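User: I'm new to structure prediction. If I give you an amino acid sequence, what do you actually give back? Let's try with this one:
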Amino acid sequence: MLVPRGSVGWRGIVTPTRLGGVDDTTALAQRASNGDQQAFDALVRATQADVWRWCARLVDVQSADDLTQETYLRAARALHGFRGEGTGRSFLLGVAKRVCLDELRRRGRRDALHQRLRQRASRQSAHAPGADRSLPLEDLIATLPEERREAFVLTQVLGLSYAEAADTLGVPVGTIRSRVARARDDLIGRIDDSRRAGEA
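Assistant: Good question. You get back a string of structure tokens that encode the predicted 3D arrangement of the chain. For your 200 residues, that looks like this:
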């Protein structure tokens, strides 16, 4: 049974452990794929924080509860195909990404969202001299190009390995490394620009 939305711990931080060489989320996913409902419930509890944060980053905080719930509903139907090639966590984050992209397409708002973020960053950098022109890190991350933002959030915010992030996004590990490096360069450049604007 899925954990009710808004329950305690929904946004808590969970650090996966390893059992017998296989991380616990993967072991739980393998058991759940064979129809073990208790394993599925435990998988939800172990991963819901990361899934929620991923959904919040890809779409928005207001929608994250519903998107997380939808992720587990879809995962329950798709787990029969899970064979443990990747980790249980990367499998769920991959499902969550598809849920979020479906939601963005349904709303027809992806391009509009990116445009609003760019406009907001532009307005903040154009403040009058002496005003606080620095952008919070959350806003800076939001202005990154989508592919770089996804790779950066998965590895630097959610703490996935490069291999797990590659599995989640369906790209080579080298691509993840490149996107994260470019995202860091982007962020450093924007932070420097913000500081210079504040000193002007």
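You can read the tokens as a compact description of the fold. Here is one thing that stands out. The first strand starts at residue 18 and ends at 19.
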